[in-house]
Automatic annotation (TrEMBL):
Main location: cytoplasm
UniProt-recorded name of the protein: Eukaryotic translation initiation factor 3 subunit D
Highest taxon listed in the record's lineage: Eukaryota
UniProt biased composition (Basic and acidic residues): 164-175
Similarity comment text for this entry: Belongs to the eIF-3 subunit D family.
Keyword Protein biosynthesis: yes
GO molecular function, one term: mRNA cap binding
Amino acid sequence: MAGISLADTINQLSVNDEWGPEITPSTTLDGVPYAPYSKGDKLGRMADWTQEGKEGRDRGGRQYGRNYRDQQIYGAGTSSLFAVQVAEDESSFSVVDNTRTTTKTRVFGRGGIAVFRGRGQRGGAQRGGRGTFQRAGQGRNAGQQQGQYYDSRGGRGGRGRRFGWRDYDKPQRNRDASVNIRPDWAMKEEIDFNRLHKLNLETSEGDDLDSYGFLHYYDRTYDKAPVKNTERKLLSLDRAAYNVTTSADPVIQELAEKDEATIFATSDILSMLMCAPRSVYSWDIVILKQGNKIFLDKRPDSSIDLVTVNENAADAPLEADSANTPSQQQTGVKADSINTPSNLANEATMINHNFALQVVIEDQNNKIEFPHPNPFYSASEETEPLASKAYKYRRFDLSLERDEEPLHLIVRTELDAATKNNISGENQFLVIKALNEFDHKAQGAGGALDWRTKLNSQRGAVVATEMKNNSCKLARWTTQAILGKADQMKLGFVSRANPKSAANHVILGVVGYKPREFAAQMNLGLSNGWGIVRTIVDLVRGLSDGDDADKKFVLVKDPNKPLIRLYDVPLNTFEDDEDGLSDAGLADGKDGADDE
């Protein structure tokens, strides 16, 4: 405004009531309005051009830094008024970066500690940003260089991995219940896991009633670490193996007629109930009351028979997108993915079945025969040879001081193999299970290490990760071993031959543990499990107190909440139709009518 004199300016200021130029066409320059300003700005920095545009420290007119937090920048947001419109023919133009990037760089900090920042670290040289290197032990703002703020998480300006960041944008894990809740089911009790954690009941180690079946000896060559490039393939063996539910077991039926106990169960069903607070996925147990006897049963094709994979991982495997249920949409998992929870469970179940059969020496002249043969095998009907398996029926006392009559439980336990003690030469019984690795880089791996490179050198870290990601599964296996009074647990490590295929597997190693020592490492106490069993039994007995008629209940783990619900169901449930075998409904039972 070169044509305005000082006198005209003074006269103009005397007319205006407020400081600043008058908002008239005369105060504009070629149609561009006067830039806005903040009332809190000092006169000394009314146009501080050095602050605007600091890369990585200003967003929308506010500086994000420890020293400039929440300070308003003069004239912020007005640069768009002077922005130059890019022509359409320049929209596709791009600049090629010809600078040389290194795949891995290292720098030595204090004490000679090398800190690597290579591929996979946000803000590093491989991501197109400035590569930075920190000394071990420095704090969040260590490595502040050239106006950039770096933290110890490997990112620029907080762009690294932040737990909880954008959790709202993650897919909702609304899982389905393991069984369809019918409208004629009456919910009698709802117990959350916090209450289950507080239960406690001390019991004895149990008594052996009878033993059935036979056992082959374990092949100790599997305990040796495999030589490089000589991994053993997991074979598919055809052997007759059985997993009969409680009420269909002829031995348990005979023991019930003799009034040997009040409660009857199998080790896989009982372990699921005892380890209920560790479970995440939905499961269900059928409780049948006949007179004063209580049978803990399972449905055919029950989820209890499946071996879960990374159930307790912080980022567990996701279901596929193709499902019609809202809980399985927008998960980012392909419909034909082999890494969905259901596919992984089927794969792990198959691996456990074949692994226990492969690691024994099938010598008919050198095996342990128990007093009675396998109660489920019929030589006239079966064409496959019988698998190595022993069944021990054991009794536990769950009585309390206030009980007028003793309360006993009989459980059918299973053993997989035997071995000779190196010192005494006595027979020791084994429970054989297998952990499986599908792809340590895939979603749902839970931060697992690469077993092929870390199993021999960092076995403790591998096992600790599995304890975290598969807490429920390992707790159930340990409980089954303790219930069966096994001398040792053998845990095999089985991995896919190709991460993209679930057809072929290799055995990478086997580790042995004593069940009670392994339980101590997992912070697993059987007294809490027995307290849960006694609580459920008291609920069932209380709901049918004074009623000698047969009754049926279903105990369901809520698929999305840490609680279990007890339903009173009709006696013909799961018998007249197959709705409960595969269909899934909401665990609260509100939508049961819609599934009819």
